[in-house]
Prior knowledge:
18 helices, Rossmann fold, 5-stranded parallel sheet, alpha/beta, 16% strand, 39% helix, 2 domains, disordered C terminus
Amino acid sequence: MSQQVSRAATDGMGGRPDRLTVLAFLGDPATEQVLRDGLGDMPANGMDIRRGTVRTAIAAMAKMQTPEVLIVDIAGEEQPLHALGELSDVVEPGVRVLVIGDTDDVDFYRHITRGMGVMEYIFKPITREAVARHFAPLITRKTIGQEVTRGGRVIAVLGARGGVGSTTIAGNLSWLLGVMAKRHTVFVESDIHMGSGALLLGGKTGPGLRMALETPDRIDPLFVERAAQPVAERLQVLASEEKLTEPLHYAPGAARRLIEALRIRYNFIILDVPFLPMQCNRELIEFAHHRVIVMDPTLASVRDTLRLLGLPNGPWQPQSPTIVLNRQGRPGGLTRKQIEEALKVKIDIVIPDIPKQLNESASFGEPAIATKGPFRQAIVDLSREIGFVANRDDSMIDGTAQLTSVGGIFKMLGFSKG
């Protein structure tokens, strides 16, 4: 592979229309499913995923035409560097090689990407977000601008309809990131009249959010610093509680300007956006990096989830939304299989029906994630889906959070404030 791999990718070499875009050799079905979901129909000339290891790839490449992009799984390989060296002897110089493994070592990442010409490396368990962010641009040759990668990460949490639990999930995700993982996090509630997220987190409301959405010329770092109300050392809330008789007079473009200001200050901006056809909400959804759709096991929720899935991706969104099925197992509700058949997509995160725990949490103003159990695990899983990259000392989250991509450490400056 050497440095020819990188040069070929940047010079546009090897783009013959007659050869397969992506050929992957993966060692387990879970990784295969995530790769399919993360790439979707991005590969122009198709994608072929086969079960196997890097040794399988070496044997196959010695007999067949090299694809434009070759993805190999080195997990479990005793001598991965030697195996990658052998692979370089049987592939054409212009191939873009992407590697999946089980080593979370920065020196290893540097060695194979800088010294051996591997284009990118992520390690297991991989997520759709990691695949879409780190692999997809190298497959489609569409670079991600600095305005996307520099600064905090914006997550829009949408309820398919009212009452499905999106505010609870957004609030607890914010608590995980800001309090438990100690990342600078702000919870933004776009419903300035009836929102309950600040109440859930024990934070205060104020006039700042409304002022930002109505008079965006006032938005600057100092304004953001004063408008957001503290919940904990690294968790703040930006929410209002306006009179029902005073409608919002939204200034077009204010949502994006607010997001840009927040990204300078925070690692994560969690937006709680109700499913209402308002210009403010549309802009918040459009300029998020990742959308999370929360639904419950009802027919109406399935219908509205389909409508949300039909929205086009925004300019900062390389992957499809994450779907969270809340209150699964509720008496009289649809089954997961029925919902997936109706949506024609897989559910990413499932939260069981645990009304006692969540009702007590809402009543006493204590995040439900503080208690170990399936709800906390679901929020931890969701944090991985939306791009949370944990340091090695983040084992306090039940020992479950871990690095998603070693390469992401160097690329996502928004995570540098920890």
